[in-house]
Design a protein that fits this description.
This protein has 13 helices and no strands. The protein has 253 residues and is an all-alpha fold. Helix 5 packs antiparallel against helix 6, helix 5 runs parallel beside helix 11 and helix 6 runs antiparallel to helix 8. The longest helix has 26 residues. The chain is globular, with a radius of gyration of 18 Å.
């Protein structure tokens, strides 16, 4: 499966997430004073802050999610089979929804609830696109499971944006994402069987489901950390770790 992933995209995604994690763990790297930033830029020693990483994530995520075939062609991966397209698109969508939430919280002072709700719209679009463009049929992915996740994600997104689900909404959404993420990311064969009675899934399909699962774990972890009052930058960095670790593990298995 890894042969379908453009190395440039993987490296960029991992780099941007890793920088975010490192800066969240050590906030002293952030140059918040505009005069300090300008001076460092002139000296060639400016260190990007979390806002810059969020903008990088928006760019990478949007490119991979919205112009998947173009990105594959530009990176020398012209084999535009449905699996490669879906793989890159899912990676782009995961980066984009996370980056949208990060941008809204860091640059627009949006609440965690609103940022997560708006970020979830990316997942809704991705799932709907997969259902309606025939990709799930080409890959043998059961439509029922995708439709169920689409419906539940849409409900959570609406409630979060309108902040109308009560004080436990983030916890419930976080639990839903982490539970499903662990099921799909770690117990992939079981997830495929439960969601669509698919027992003989190919290694390629198992990989994409696992990758999607770990993106859900990261998304749910972010919500849990924010709901517990962790500082935004630190929560964004730590939340990205499950997704990063899945990439790291894929290098060895």
């Amino acid at each position: 499966m890894r042969c379908y992933l453009p190395n440039l995209l993987v490296q960029t995604a991992v780099f941007s997430s890793a920088v975010a994690s490192a800066m969240a763990a050590n906030p002293f790297l952030t140059q918040s004073n505009p005069l300090t930033r300008q001076a460092l830029e002139l000296r060639g020693g400016w260190t990007p802050d979390a806002k810059d990483v969020a903008k990088l994530g928006l760019t990478v995520g949007a490119a991979t999610a919205l112009s998947t075939k173009t990105v594959l062609e530009k990176t020398g991966n012209g084999n535009l089979d449905p699996m490669s397209v879906l793989t890159v698109r899912r990676i782009g969508g995961s980066i984009l929804n996370y980056s949208v939430a990060a941008y809204l919280m860091l640059s627009q002072n949006a609440s965690a609830s609103t940022a997560v709700g708006v970020g979830s719209i990316i997942t809704i679009i991705e799932l709907a696109k997969t259902l309606f463009d025939g990709t799930h049929k080409d890959l043998g992915i059961p439509a029922e499971g995708q439709a169920m996740v689409l419906f539940i994600t849409a409900i959570f997104s609406h409630l979060l944006i309108n902040d109308s689900g009560g004080g436990n909404l983030m916890k419930i959404n976080s639990g839903w994402c982490i539970a499903n993420g662990v099921l799909m990311g770690v117990f992939t064969k079981l997830a495929l069987k439960l969601y669509g009675d698919k027992v003989d899934a190919s290694p390629d399909l198992e990989y994409i489901v696992s990758l999607w699962g770990f993106s859900l774990v990261s998304w749910g972890t972010l919500m849990a950390l924010l709901d517990n009052g962790m500082a935004t930058e630190k929560a964004l960095g730590l939340g990205a770790l499950p997704f990063l670790l899945r990439f790291a593990v894929s290098k060895f298995i």
